[in-house]
Amino acid sequence: MSTLAVEFTTSRMLQTVYGTSNLVWANVIGLVLLFLTLGYFIGGRWADKRPFPATFYALVSAAGLAGVFFLLLTSVILKTAAAAMAAINVGALLSSFVGVLLALAVPVTLLGCISPFAIRLAVQDVGEAGRVSGRIYAISTWGSLLGTYLPVLVTIPLAGSRVTAVLFGSLLFLVGVIGLWQTNRQKGVLGVVAGLLLLPVVLLWTQGGIKAYDGQLFETESAYNYVQVVRQGDCNYLLLNEGQAYHSFYCDGGAVPYVSVWSMMLAAPYFNQGPVQVDKAAVIGLAAGTIPKQLTRVFGPIPIVGIELDPAIVQAGRDYFAMTEPNLQVIVGDGRYQLNQLNETYDLITIDAYKVPYIPWHLTTREFFHEVQAHLSPTGVVAVNVGRAPQDRSLVEAMTATLLTVFPSVHAIDVPGALNTILVATMQPTAPENAAVNLAQLAANADPLLRATLETAVSNLAPNKPSAVVFTDERAPVETIVDSLVLRYLLQEGPAGLPGLGG
To answer: Are residues 271 and 191 in the same domain?
Structure first.
């Protein structure tokens, strides 16, 4: 239980700075397995040399204390790493990552020592070795289930990752100290003293926020994300996890000071032949409600369904982003599943479900876009936010190829000043020139935001070349493409061009 809790808590701590990519998870899981292997080897030899209950319980106590101390130390290291991420200081980021992985070595290696030691003490007769080891492995697997679900679903969302580290480490330490007290009173007293010496560290390192950004208004840890709201100037920004891009913004009075990624979604219906009419919309990847707010401003109080996986983000939207439009129906759940529960059709469906720079693979496939198509009106359009690099459009090209297996026309808009392309797929065959025609025919009293968005879209239409890769539910190598895209960009361009809050 404690081993899995350490693993999930560490990954959650890393998520606040390094994100949630497969590369991060592979490092955490791989290092945990490596240190467990080392612990199994050391624990087995140790148990044969000193097969005493007091030694075993001292080991359990030490593992509990190490779990508390080194995971809290990890949180301190990551505060420095968060500042390095904000400043794009790659050297500090890498050194912090190495420091975290080294800190993980001590508690996980000690935890690995416990299982073989427990088996050695429990087996009194070689004839019952199979039964005893089977029972211990069954109990440990049950503990793994608890260590998987309790941190993710209960303690991290309710109390945070640092308190979770203290809870699980303290529980393990308590078991060890009780055993020590029963088997060797003197060592039991030493264990209690060691716990008391750790108490000031716990009190000191669990204080304050997880990050300390200028203008930070709010932060929380949900079952899915580290959620942060930061204020700059007259606007609030929603940051998730590593915080290297913002996912929603709201400016005082509902002002929209510039054309953004989300504004570009407004241009999507104008690739149809005019006159353009949008009566109903759905948003997959609602975040804090920037897209519905701008849709309502331009098209009026049309019915909008917004789907968002994380309820903590929805609450932040209501508290800090004025996401209170009466025409917005919020649905909390997975975008694909919840879309298929809807029984209406829409003139516009937007998809913006990034955990930068990754997009969930099940929202990229041919089968998914067939499901989207079934929820579009005869003149409906779908707009998808896709990441790219200045010299690498591999993900855009694969998404284009996938969309073209379902829709007759796909158009691309490169968002100025960002590493994003909006792909627009239409139910009817359409031409990119339609956007310019509709712009020219736009009513004189049209909302200035719509006019500015269409002008920006027409000026930034990009060549749309499909690749040979088509994403399917059977095979969707999205993360492979994004990993290579990111690595090539960092090697060629360096980190200075990465988008951030000020980008």
So the answer is: no
